Amino acid sequence: MKVLSITILAAMFMFTAACSSSEADTSSSTTETAANAGGQENVKDDDSQQDVVKVAVGSKDHTTLVAALKQADLVTSLSNAGPFTVFAPTNAAFDKVDKATLTALMTDEKKADLQNILQYHVTVSALKADYLQDGQVLGMVNGDNVTVSIKNGKIMLNNSAAIIASVPASNGIIHVIDGVLLPPSK
Questions:
Q1: Where is the FAS1 domain (predicted)?
Q2: pLDDT tens for residues 142-161?
């Protein structure tokens, strides 16, 4: 009986030692992956539908808008869950803005003005083009309003920019526009 007890104890000891060395081997071979700094805009996902920022980044017609969003520190905000409707001026639309004014807006000293203008292009909801109606007033992120009108079948914003295309995104919708919307003067 004494031999059996010693054999069982020896077996338990060997089993415990084997488990301990196995855990040590596993933990030493595990490597930690550093998390990416930044917000949701830094998440790499090639399978899901892209958010409004990633759609804009992928468009050759929106390089000025993307540069402005980066300068205004709005990339993270527009990469979040939303939903957002973004009225996205094309590069050609920005070309209509006075060059000196556009250059000045892209400086740190004018960041608040640039943020105000860009936030005037965003509303918090996902509004498809067929939802927009003549005379409709949209509250924009900057606190001001945009008025929708329909002229000759074209959807216009403040009678100054027309929607020329619409692109769905994972966190809303982008309406490509042919003009830059300027908030009303205070």
A1: 49-181
A2: 999 999 999 999 999 999 99
